[in-house]
Amino acid sequence: EEGYDVHCGLMVRVLRLCPGRAPEVIEMGDSLDALQWAVGGHIEVVKAGDHLDLLVNEDGAHDLLGTFGGVSIKGVALLVRRDSAGVLVDVTDDDIAEVVARFVPAKTMN
Known about the structure:
Blueprint: E1 11-17, E2 24-29, H1 32-39, E3 43-49, E4 52-57, E5 64-68, E6 71-74, E7 77-82, E8 88-89, H2 93-102, E9 103-105
Protein backbone atom coordinates (compact mmCIF):
# COMPACT_ATOMS: atom_id res chain seq x y z
CA GLU A 1 0.00 0.00 0.00
CA GLU A 2 2.95 2.32 0.52
CA GLY A 3 3.97 4.31 -2.50
CA TYR A 4 0.50 4.46 -4.01
CA ASP A 5 -0.59 7.99 -4.76
CA VAL A 6 -4.32 7.58 -5.25
CA HIS A 7 -6.80 10.31 -6.00
CA CYS A 8 -10.25 9.50 -4.73
CA GLY A 9 -12.84 9.85 -7.44
CA LEU A 10 -10.72 9.17 -10.52
CA MET A 11 -11.41 6.11 -12.63
CA VAL A 12 -8.57 3.96 -13.96
CA ARG A 13 -8.46 1.05 -16.38
CA VAL A 14 -7.15 -2.14 -14.74
CA LEU A 15 -7.04 -5.84 -15.57
CA ARG A 16 -8.93 -7.99 -13.05
CA LEU A 17 -7.89 -11.63 -12.67
CA CYS A 18 -10.27 -13.89 -10.73
CA PRO A 19 -9.96 -17.64 -10.02
CA GLY A 20 -11.99 -19.68 -12.52
CA ARG A 21 -12.82 -16.69 -14.75
CA ALA A 22 -11.33 -15.13 -17.86
CA PRO A 23 -9.28 -11.95 -17.26
CA GLU A 24 -11.34 -8.81 -17.75
CA VAL A 25 -10.55 -5.16 -18.29
CA ILE A 26 -12.56 -2.93 -15.97
CA GLU A 27 -12.64 0.68 -14.91
CA MET A 28 -12.66 1.30 -11.19
CA GLY A 29 -12.04 4.03 -8.67
CA ASP A 30 -8.42 4.62 -7.74
CA SER A 31 -8.93 5.13 -4.00
CA LEU A 32 -7.15 2.83 -1.56
CA ASP A 33 -10.55 1.74 -0.23
CA ALA A 34 -11.70 0.75 -3.74
CA LEU A 35 -8.49 -1.21 -4.40
CA GLN A 36 -8.71 -3.01 -1.05
CA TRP A 37 -12.38 -3.82 -1.59
CA ALA A 38 -11.57 -5.26 -5.04
CA VAL A 39 -8.94 -7.66 -3.65
CA GLY A 40 -10.87 -8.45 -0.47
CA GLY A 41 -8.52 -6.95 2.12
CA HIS A 42 -5.14 -5.38 2.66
CA ILE A 43 -2.99 -5.10 -0.45
CA GLU A 44 0.26 -6.88 -1.22
CA VAL A 45 2.18 -5.67 -4.28
CA VAL A 46 3.78 -8.12 -6.71
CA LYS A 47 6.04 -6.36 -9.23
CA ALA A 48 4.91 -7.16 -12.79
CA GLY A 49 7.19 -4.94 -14.86
CA ASP A 50 8.27 -1.34 -15.32
CA HIS A 51 5.60 0.70 -13.55
CA LEU A 52 3.33 -2.39 -13.48
CA ASP A 53 2.12 -4.13 -10.34
CA LEU A 54 -0.26 -6.92 -9.47
CA LEU A 55 -2.25 -5.96 -6.39
CA VAL A 56 -3.38 -8.98 -4.35
CA ASN A 57 -4.81 -9.71 -0.92
CA GLU A 58 -1.86 -9.90 1.48
CA ASP A 59 -3.56 -12.64 3.54
CA GLY A 60 -3.74 -14.99 0.55
CA ALA A 61 -6.62 -16.92 2.16
CA HIS A 62 -8.38 -17.48 -1.15
CA ASP A 63 -8.48 -19.93 -4.05
CA LEU A 64 -5.26 -20.23 -6.01
CA LEU A 65 -5.39 -17.97 -9.07
CA GLY A 66 -2.03 -19.03 -10.53
CA THR A 67 1.59 -18.00 -10.53
CA PHE A 68 3.41 -14.97 -11.83
CA GLY A 69 7.18 -14.85 -11.86
CA GLY A 70 7.29 -17.86 -9.53
CA VAL A 71 5.00 -16.19 -6.97
CA SER A 72 1.72 -17.92 -6.07
CA ILE A 73 -1.22 -15.56 -6.46
CA LYS A 74 -4.41 -16.30 -4.54
CA GLY A 75 -7.80 -14.67 -4.91
CA VAL A 76 -8.43 -11.63 -7.06
CA ALA A 77 -5.50 -9.77 -8.59
CA LEU A 78 -5.54 -6.34 -10.20
CA LEU A 79 -2.96 -5.33 -12.79
CA VAL A 80 -2.29 -1.62 -12.36
CA ARG A 81 0.13 0.88 -13.89
CA ARG A 82 1.79 3.79 -12.10
CA ASP A 83 3.33 6.80 -13.77
CA SER A 84 6.78 8.10 -12.78
CA ALA A 85 5.23 10.01 -9.85
CA GLY A 86 3.49 6.88 -8.51
CA VAL A 87 -0.01 7.94 -9.61
CA LEU A 88 -2.28 5.18 -10.91
CA VAL A 89 -2.95 5.47 -14.65
CA ASP A 90 -4.70 3.26 -17.19
CA VAL A 91 -3.07 -0.06 -18.12
CA THR A 92 -2.41 -0.39 -21.84
CA ASP A 93 -3.23 -3.27 -24.17
CA ASP A 94 0.52 -3.98 -24.37
CA ASP A 95 0.71 -4.13 -20.54
CA ILE A 96 -2.12 -6.63 -20.49
CA ALA A 97 -0.61 -8.80 -23.23
CA GLU A 98 2.78 -8.85 -21.47
CA VAL A 99 1.39 -9.89 -18.10
CA VAL A 100 -1.14 -12.42 -19.44
CA ALA A 101 1.66 -14.09 -21.43
CA ARG A 102 3.75 -14.51 -18.25
CA PHE A 103 0.89 -15.57 -15.97
CA VAL A 104 0.29 -19.30 -15.38
CA PRO A 105 -3.35 -19.99 -14.39
CA ALA A 106 -3.89 -22.51 -11.57
CA LYS A 107 -5.81 -24.95 -13.77
CA THR A 108 -2.77 -25.41 -16.05
CA MET A 109 -0.20 -25.81 -13.25
CA ASN A 110 1.09 -29.27 -12.30
